[in-house]
Amino acid sequence: MQGKGLITIVAIVLGLICLNELIPTWYASKIESQIEAANGNEKEIKRLKEDTLNLGYTKLYYSKAKDKEMKLGLDLKGGINVLLEINQRDLVNDLTNYSSNPVLIEALNKTDEVQKNSTKAYVDNFFDQFEALNKAKGTNLKLADPELFGNTNLTEIKYNTTDEQVKSIIKRRIDASVGTAFEVIRTRIDKMGAVQPNVQRVPGTARISVEMPGMKDIDKVKKMLQTSAKLQFWEVQQVPEIGPYFQTLTTMIPIKGDSMGVAKNVNFMNLLHLDKLRTNGVASIKLSDTAVVNNILNSKVGQSLRPSNIKYTQFMWGYKPEATDPESLVLYAIRGNINQKAPVDGAVETASISYDELGRVVVDMQMDSKGAKEWKTLTEKNVNKPVAVTLDNRVYTAPNVVNAIPNGRTQISGNFSQDEAKELVDVLGAGKLPAGAKVVQATQVGPSLGQESIDAGMISFAIAFLVIIVYIIFYYGGAGVYAVIAMIINLFYIFGIMDSVDATLTLPGIAGIVLTMAMAVDTNVIIYERTKEELFAGKNILEAYKDGFKHALSAIVDGHLTTLLTAGVLFLFGTGPIKGFALTLGIGILMTFFTSVLISRTMIFARLNKGKQLSVWTPPTKNLFRNTWIDFIGKRKYAYIISLVLTVISIGSIFIHGFKYGIDFTGGRNYVVRFDKDVNAEDIEQNLVKIFKTEDGKNSSVEAKTFGNANQLKISTDYLIDDESLKADQTVEQKLYEGLKTSLPANISLHDFKSADKEHAGIISSEKVGPTVADDIKTHGILAVVAALGGIFLYILVRFRKWQFSLGAVAALFHDAVIILGTYSLLHKYMPFNMEINQDFIAAILTVLGYSINDTVIIFDRIREYLREKKSLTLAGLFDDSISSTLGRTFNTSFTTILVILAIFIFGGDNLRGFMFAMLIGIGFGTYSSIFIASAIAYDFLKSGKEEEVHGKTTSSKEVLASK
Predict the structure, then answer these.
(1) Residue 641: its pLDDT value, please?
(2) Residue 621 needs a FRET pair 20 to 30 A away by CA distance; which of 134, 363, 554, 666 works?
(3) Which residues have CB under 8 Å from 660's CB, separation 6+?
(4) Are strands 71-72 and 504-505 parallel, antiparallel or unpaired?
């Protein structure tokens, strides 16, 4: 065999590279097992951590191995994943030097609204809105005008710079600011001591993805990541100035309380507790009343009632309750201005923990030069008056200024604990974000659930692998043994390459590896079935294998490329775990070709060239499908009727019953909660509906459904989903805790409830998706399906040179997709597992499309071959011959794949059941549609073309087989 030496060298080199990459994972796991066995023996644990593994060319330490070990996703290890979005409105405002131009402000307001349902970049939408308003109002403003971007912040913009040039400069500056934010976020994460964090910018957006395996305190993570570290200093207004406004609100609530989001019997003055006020604030509000006060102050009615002296006043809350009143928060009135730019807005050069004269923890800091100058001006102006120190719109302290501070040194006090002061110093020390950041998507997986996922994944993996080994050896005998060897090498390469490219292994990734094994089986089945045909034609074993590999290659290449196309689309449009699934599938497909075609061929011919035999069947399987011939084309009308009925039922159900959309399509929060006893999902849901009511009394969407075992629920809600603050997240968790309290252990605290482990009840995983992200995910999902169908149509057209084949293939794929969608629409209310339309479902649909087209390509490839070789056959006979001759491959591939998917469905854990159910339905109908839809439609449209090109009249006679 030509090139076998090169293949052998490549295989050995690749194997050594993979071995070098995987050794650290094995060694770190070995040391950790020994540490666990040490059972707290500090001396032994220290010895183990200092142990080294001498590899000859290098020494491997535990800490070094830990850094290089294979990354596990959150679903396997537990941890936190957040998607941060940098506030681009803040960035635009900063670049305009906080201009108060009315057209600019209105354009920004309109952009905020448009952005909620747009996948375009914020700045592109802003330019569109600005141009539309500029034209509508006839203001003829140029972007380079001094009151817009032609200011001292942007020296590269001159008075004659064109709008297109300004746009390019603004986009470049915003991209650079997001890059700065990325570096700041990464520095903060390093200070948190996270192990193997993964921080990435999301291309084309102002978003940053942060994954922190092993982290448990999501509130701390969100706080560290969202804090802008932009300290601001403001003048403070006090009760004499604000009091008349509060009196006006008190008299207006009984009249317009409904419009203000509160009950008309609320006594606003009683909520203020002015008698308890001991600071420079304007009220001391009980924690339970802060939401009511926010509604009143932020309502349109409340805003319209403001007198001129507080038109731009910002009401801000204290950082935390005062030590003297831990149940209340102080409300401050911050003197604002039309563009709400702080008088002092400087970055911190240094920050450190210190203590005041009473021994209380404080934070000492030194401002940069700009901040120091502004701070001197502000303190000179406000001697004997209060000045507020704020961080992310929270007031840390608001002392009276004793005298001017000229050097930029100041002190922040805020009733800090030592840990809180350290967090603040870490945030300030990492540098400020160029703009505010908000968490638009978050996922938290508890370590116990991660371990359960690993166990479930490994069990399903082992069962699937065993099923494949037994079946392929049973069916193909000695040749099956070589297929198994190639499959084992394939798995070794996949894990090694994933580790070398720093890919993260996730639960969907394990599913992708298992599906890769099914693809490897398919590759071997195609080769061995062709080899059997050559043997039955009378060729000797060596020639049969040569021609078997030769004739199978075209079909294998087509099948691999179409599946690779699907994996590419998934990777391009997917996010998070779906990207991991796509990457794993893509690597697996490439390695499957290398191992099952090239390495397997090298091994087989090394044996055959020595004169040894190699069976390609066993006695029970030798003649299976050998003389099977079915008049598929003659029966196609029955198939059309069946498919039409199923399609009509599916489409009808979609329109009548709709779907159960997941939160990544609608926005919302998911919580998987484990109890110490079985619970009734309907009772829980009714309790939570009462709890999750908005302030105006409207019900939020709430659903509770058994998730796996009867002591586990998946709870979904859209309550407060438009509020992307940390406080909103905490409020939802508090209400969830209160709504479930009667079903939880008597002594469980809120903290324990939020961080459950294997031994305790509570939240074992949570997920949040903001509305903007949900809209992006939904749009990308639709684009992914359309792109996959379009790509497959073009590929089939190029490969088979006939649009009829492309039409048949895409029609079959559309048929499969509609049937799966219809099944999910019909059954989502009744199945005991998740049947939501979400990212996982889109991945399943695309994987099914890739698998189905692979099936179709095998048949089309045989039809193309027969069109060249069997010119005497009628078109119908030729199609029937082609389909019948590939039945062995179709059955074996579909059967083994379904067995593999069943293993994952049953043993792979609750998170994968919905995904695998879609795969089961899809593989079944994909096999059916390849035969009865794709081929039949291609036949009908070829038949209606030029008859002379297909040689003969339609026939369904079995004489075709006899004449072969």
Answers:
(1) 93
(2) 554
(3) 824, 828, 829, 835, 836, 837
(4) parallel
User: Tokens 């009151």 belong to which residue?
Assistant: 147
CB atoms within 10 A of CB 433: 27
> 392: alpha, beta or left, given left = phi > 0 and alpha = psi -120 to 50?
left
Tokens 């794709």 belong to residue: 934
The DSSP bridge partners found for residue 331 are 283, 317
**Is the Cβ–Cβ distance between 250 and 267 less than 8 Å?**
yes
- 501-531: buried (b, 16+ CB within 10 Å) or exposed (e) per residue? eebbbbbbbbbbbbbbbbbbbbbbbbbbbbb
| Joined tokens for residue 471 | 């079946």
First-to-final CA distance of the chain:
31
> What's the rounded Cα separation, in Å, for the pair 312 and 410?
27
- Which pair of structure tokens corresponds to residue 777? 């995910």
Supply the DSSP symbol for 265.
T
Q: What tens digit of pLDDT does each residue of 336-367 get?
A: 887 778 888 766 777 788 887 777 788 887 87
DSSP state of 147: T
Three-state DSSP string of 890-940:
HHHHHHHHHHHHHHHHHHCCHHHHHHHHHHHHHHHHHHHHHHHHHHHHHHH
Which amino acid would we find at residue 389? V
Exposed/middle/buried for 865, CB within 10 Å: 0-12, 13-18, 19+?
middle
- pLDDT tens, 539-561? 888 888 888 888 888 878 877 88
Nearest C-alpha neighbor of 36 from the set 26, 49, 24:
49
Count of residues in the chain: 964
664, two tokens: 């990544």
Q: List the structure tokens of 193.
A: 């001591």
Cα–Cα distance for residue pair 366/688, rounded to 1 Å: 49
Per-residue three-class SS string for 3-19 = CHHHHHHHHHHHHHHHH
d(CA 123, CA 525): 53
